[in-house]
C-alpha cells in the first residue's frame, strides 16, 4: 500500500515540477520544438476538462474531481482494490487527478497548465497528469474487461451442481 501512495506522490511532485517549469520557462517562449512538426512543448492554460470541455466550470470540476479522488483514495487505503494491476490503475488516476486538482484549485480562474503538443493529428495539448489519468483509466478498463472475475477455477469449481437427493458417483465409476 505504501508503495502505491509513494508512487502517486512522486508522480504528483513530478507533474507539479514540470508545470512550474512550463510557467517559468515555456510560457515566455510559447513553444519549443522537440521533434519538428511532430512533438513540441507548448504552453497552454486549460480552463476546462479533457479536450477543453466544461470551460469555465471550475467549481463543478473541483467538486466532481474531489469526490472521485476521495472515493479512490478511501478504496485504496481500505484495501478494496486487490492485485497490482487495479492498484496501479487507481494510483495513476489518483496521481493525475490530484496534479490537475492542485492546478485548478490554486491558479487564478482555475486553469490547468498543459504543455505537450502532438502535432500530426492536432491533438489537444496535455500534461503528465493527463497521461497518468488516461493510462490509469485504460488499465482499469482492461482489468474490468479481461481480469476481474476471470481467475482460473480450482479443481472441482465451476462444475454443475448436483441436484438435491442425488449422490455423486465415486471417482472412476459411472
Walk me through what this model shows:
The chain is mainly α and 174 residues long. It has one domain. Helices cover 52% and strands 11% of the residues. It has 4 helices and 3 strands. The chain has helices at residues 2-29, 58-77, 84-106, 128-147; strands at residues 31-35, 39-46, 112-118. It has a 3-stranded antiparallel sheet. β1 (31-35) and β2 (39-46) form a beta hairpin. α1 (2-29) packs across α3 and α2 runs antiparallel to α3. The longest helix has 28 residues, at 2-29. The radius of gyration is 23 Å and the shape is globular. The chain starts with a helix and ends in a 27-residue tail after the last helix. The model has no long low-confidence stretch (mean pLDDT 88).
Short summary of the structure?
This protein is mostly helical and 174 residues long.
Task: Give the arrangement of secondary structure elements.
Elements: H1 2-29, E1 31-35, E2 39-46, H2 58-77, H3 84-106, E3 112-118, H4 128-147
Antiparallel strand pairs: 1-2, 2-3
Helix pairs in contact: 1-3, 2-3, 3-4
Q: In the residues, how many domains can be counted?
A: 1
How far from one another are the termini? 51 Å
Report on the biggest sheet.
3 strands, antiparallel
Shape: globular
Top keywords for this entry?
single chain; mainly alpha; 174 residues
Amino acid at each position: 500500500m505504501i508503495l502505491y501512495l509513494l508512487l502517486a506522490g512522486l508522480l504528483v511532485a513530478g507533474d507539479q515540477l514540470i508545470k512550474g517549469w512550463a510557467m517559468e520557462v515555456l510560457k515566455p517562449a510559447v513553444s519549443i520544438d522537440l521533434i519538428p512538426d511532430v512533438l513540441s512543448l507548448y504552453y497552454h492554460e486549460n480552463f476546462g476538462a479533457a479536450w477543453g470541455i466544461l470551460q469555465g466550470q471550475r467549481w463543478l470540476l473541483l467538486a466532481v474531481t474531489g469526490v472521485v479522488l476521495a472515493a479512490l483514495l478511501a478504496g485504496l487505503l481500505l484495501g478494496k482494490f486487490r492485485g497490482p494491476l487495479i492498484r496501479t490503475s487507481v494510483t495513476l488516476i489518483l496521481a493525475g487527478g490530484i496534479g490537475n486538482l492542485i492546478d485548478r484549485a490554486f491558479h487564478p480562474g482555475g486553469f490547468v497548465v498543459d504543455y505537450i503538443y502532438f502535432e500530426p493529428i492536432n491533438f489537444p495539448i496535455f500534461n503528465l497528469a493527463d497521461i497518468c489519468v488516461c493510462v490509469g483509466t485504460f488499465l482499469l478498463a482492461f482489468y474490468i474487461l479481461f481480469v476481474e472475475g476471470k481467475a482460473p477455477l480450482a479443481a472441482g469449481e465451476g462444475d454443475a451442481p448436483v441436484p438435491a437427493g442425488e449422490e455423486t458417483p465415486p471417482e472412476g465409476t459411472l
